[in-house]
Design brief:
- Helices cover about 20% and strands about 15% of the residues.
- The chain is built from 4 helices and 6 strands.
- The strands form 2 sheets. Strands 1-3-5 form a 3-stranded parallel β-sheet. It has a 3-stranded parallel β-sheet with strand order 2-4-6.
- The chain is of the alpha/beta class and about 150 residues long.
Length: about 150
């Protein structure tokens, strides 16, 4: 074997289909587009969701519901997560920076502490929002709540 006789494997390469190059090419005449109709014309592009003239799905289904533009999206974190985090890292203060470092919240997330789970560690918890049960549980464990 040398550089003068290197070839790709048999069947691994294909020639492009040369359309509209005369009758002898086998792809002349209508150039593989069939006869007449929108799809045979130049410049044709189908609208998204077009179903051949049938009423499209997005128009057959009714509209319902609404999007509340004033909704505030919080990243929910339960007390059980805070307890596990405090035990693992010997924490006394839990704030959004600690949660971001441990992958529990994103940099732009608003954090809400929820009351699911048991909290025994005395923690100072800083977050954007608290549920009533979470706030009561933190204060019952002699911790403090700071709303950001």
């Amino acid at each position: 074997m040398n550089l003068s006789n290197l070839n790709p494997a048999k069947g691994s390469t294909h020639h492009d289909k040369r359309i509209a190059r005369g009758a002898g090419s086998g792809h002349g005449g209508t150039s593989t587009r069939g006869h007449k109709g929108a799809k045979s014309r130049s410049g044709y592009s189908q609208k998204f969701g077009f179903e051949g003239g049938q009423m499209p799905l997005q128009r057959r289904l009714p509209k319902f519901g609404f999007k509340n533009i004033n909704r505030v999206e919080y990243k929910a974190i339960n007390l059980s997560f805070l307890q596990a985090l405090a035990e693992k890292q010997n924490l006394t203060v839990v704030d959004p920076e600690v949660l971001i470092e441990n992958g529990l919240a994103g940099r732009n997330d608003l954090v809400k502490i929820l009351g699911n789970g048991q909290l025994t560690a005395k923690l100072e918890v800083k977050a954007h929002a608290f549920s009533k049960s979470a706030q009561a549980a933190i204060e019952a464990a002699n911790g403090s709540v700071v709303k950001l």
